[in-house]
Amino acid sequence: MKIGFDLMGSDNAPNSEFSALELLKDEGIRDLVVCGLGDHEHDVTDLGFEFQLADEVIGMHEIPSVAIRQKKSSSLGVLVHLLKEKHLDAVVSAGNTGAIMGFSMILLGKIEGLSRPGLAITLPTEEGYSVILDVGANISPKAIDYYNYGLMGSVLAEIISDKKTPRVAILNIGTENVKGDDTRQKAYTILQESSLNFIGNIEGNNIMKGFADVIITDGFTGNVVLKLTEGMIDTLWHMLTEEVDAVVRRRFGKYLVKPAVQGLRAKFNYEEHGGGILLGVEGVVIVCHGHSSPLALKNAVRLAKACVEFDILTAIKKKIKS
Question: Is the separation of the CB atoms in 167 and 211 below 8 Å?
């Protein structure tokens, strides 16, 4: 197995990426092809990883369509090309999300039978984790896309949570089948008649209660949910920290409160799975936050390996044909 790792992707590249490589080395994970500028070759090989030269870097604020045309020899372009040619089994990058999706669509293409890809992430819930997609790849999905999201999300839920018949729900403004726009209503009918374990609509206040294992929505709404959740978790964590600090000053407070709060923080930590996966393209592509920490990048590589080992592409193709 070979995992392509973008050395030049994150906001803090290549420092965060090098720290992630140190963590991966300590875990004995060496089957990476690290792509970056020539200045970093010796540092990469000294760590024991294979190095792939890139001539350019795509910045976070570059227009994806322009970057894809003009920077084919960038670290992103090189890695996705290697994935297309089967020299790699997966690609992990914290780079420009639009460019990652663009290169993936152009070079890898869509899985036969799917109209559009979706970007999937995991969210913590009271019952474990739920998969939510799309969170940014497609802001105007058709009804059939919702079905495909449910199908692909179910496969990912099997990997993440070991669920054999994941519960699938549409994110909507009400639970009734007549709620939402025409597209969601049509999607409801398609999913209801499908072989998926479709449980109906779910409202925003129930996303994190664990009622559904797979939550499907359009890319605009999904991205708002993602950013709102991240911001809310950060805010709540700071508020909890202030309250805990006050309790810790009292006798025995730290022994009673701090372990529980630290456990809660760990569950809601985005670093747990490291990134999202672009489902629906002919390759395993993991998309990480631009501000990803070394731990998040390390776990993104582990997610990529899990998807390859599970053979997620074949599993999706089998579900399409079934």
Answer: yes
